[in-house]
Amino acid sequence: MSQYQQDIDAIATLKSTQHGKWDSISPEYAARMKAQNRFKTGLDIARYTAAIMRQDMADYDADTAQYTQSLGCWHGFVGQQKMLSIKKHYGNTNKRYLYLSGWMVAALRSEFGPLPDQSMHEKTSVPALIEELYTFLRQADAQELGKLFKQLDTAKESGQDTADIQSQIDNFESHVVPIIADIDAGFGNEEATYLLAKKMIEAGACCIQIENQVSDAKQCGHQDGKVTVPHEDFLAKINAVRYAFLELGVDDGVIVARTDSLGAGLTQKIPVSQQPGDLASQYNAYLDTTEVNGAEDLKDGDLVIKQNGKLVKPVRLPNGLFKFKSDTGVDRVVLDCITSLQNGADLLWIETEKPHVGQIADMVNQIREVVPDAKLVYNNSPSFNWTLNFRQQIFDQWESQGKDVSGYQRDRLMSSEYDESELATEADQKIQSFQRDAAREAGIFHHLITLPTYHTAALSTDNLAKGYFGEEGMLAYVRGVQRKEIREGLACVKHQAMAGSDLGDTHKEYFSGEAALKASGKDNTMNQFDV
């Protein structure tokens, strides 16, 4: 017996004990409402999605073709439409997640207005967006199940076989999927990280991504000026997130440790080494230093440390930050990743300056020499010029193979004059296979685009504004938006229903019976889309 049928029976039994006081309550309607609201709390969601993500990680370990994907969403409606689209086109949500980008929270959700990705936005806006996303996904469940219930009623009334519809109800797959949620650098010290992590988990987050930048100097991973923290500081924050998961009973919560060391040439402080070769010693070994032979080599306020039996002076900038040696980024990334995995992190995020499978694989292979099952979450970032990067990669490949590249100028490969060229075609093929290739060759378990819907909103709005305020007028909306919604089967064309009108009508009928004042009568203009 399905859960739906069990609920009908249980509520009917409960109703029978009420001595007639619940005569107006329909056990079947109550069971429908339970089915449409499967998750009662954010913690229910976090536990459910953590199990999904852990199984997906195991699937990937067994077969790298089983990688996962997500798109960044800055509003609950965007996340809802994404999952509705996935279910419409692919039938299920398997291996598809949502990503919550700190960049988009800063740019689009702060009460201060648009802000750069520097942890300047309100930390409360992060768990608020998680809760909003799951509110919209749960509403998608309610709406889609509501349609099935209406089909069931219609079939019953006409005496049709209801087995197929009942099976769809009994085996309904929720739109609720894992969210990988960006906590930036933790928004303060480890206690601040713990408190915010709790709020995020309570809102439904099963996976929290944290980076090794200095919290009060945090920069976007694709901009200059990044400053990293010593390993001890970062591990304390990983511990803080794990304690938050355990306190709230999400024992298999997932932590993604992000390293920005590839592009970060600075550190805020020099950790204290307790014994030779410890983490502090390894971190300090990458500092840019000059040897000190005597007091005459020092100025007032200079700092001196002992390394390998010698006194050295770390290079310090006027702002007090210390420099790392040049060309140590890869080594620091590898050490960061190994250390994080050995101390509680589950997945890695390596922020790179370009999407290059070989570069990522080189680092991952070094990490896997120590941690064989190391896996990455990778940012397929809009900050990369994907067209130019891959055209240049193909150009370099052809040149190394001795192929004639005289018809191309490497620094002008973004030009539209090359769009139909053989080189551009091959580059596009490599872009298309990038996620498959990187999952197979570079240990990438999860591919995400941080802020795609930021760009799609801008692009679609520009196209509509260009036509609507020009010669096309209303045709720009009709041909460019509404007609496409109808032809492509978007439920959103019935925006009243998408906002909850039909669901509300159903509830009114449950509560008030024939006296219900419903919005979906003959004068509802949404009926025009039933043709």
Word description of this protein:
- By secondary structure, the chain is of the alpha/beta class.
- It has a domain at 42-262 and 329-401 and 419-450: TIM Barrel (Alpha-Beta Barrel).
- It is 47% helix and 11% strand.
- The chain has helices at 3-16, 27-35, 42-62, 76-90, 102-108, 125-157, 163-170, 190-203, 231-247, 279-284, 329-342, 357-368, 386-400, 422-432, 434-441, 452-468, 474-487, 495-498, 501-512, and strands at residues 68-72, 96-100, 179-182, 207-211, 227-228, 254-259, 266-267, 289-291, 305-307, 310-314, 322-323, 347-350, 376-379, 444-449.
- The strands form three sheets. An eight-stranded parallel sheet has the order 12-6-4-3-2-1-14-13. Strands 5-7-11 form a three-stranded mixed sheet, with no helix packed on it.
- It is globular, with a radius of gyration of 28 Å.
- It starts with a helix and ends in a 19-residue tail after the last helix.
- Its cofactor is Mg(2+).
- Pfam families: ICL (PF00463).
- This is Isocitrate lyase.
- Substrate binds at residues 101-103, 221-222, 258, 379-383, 450.
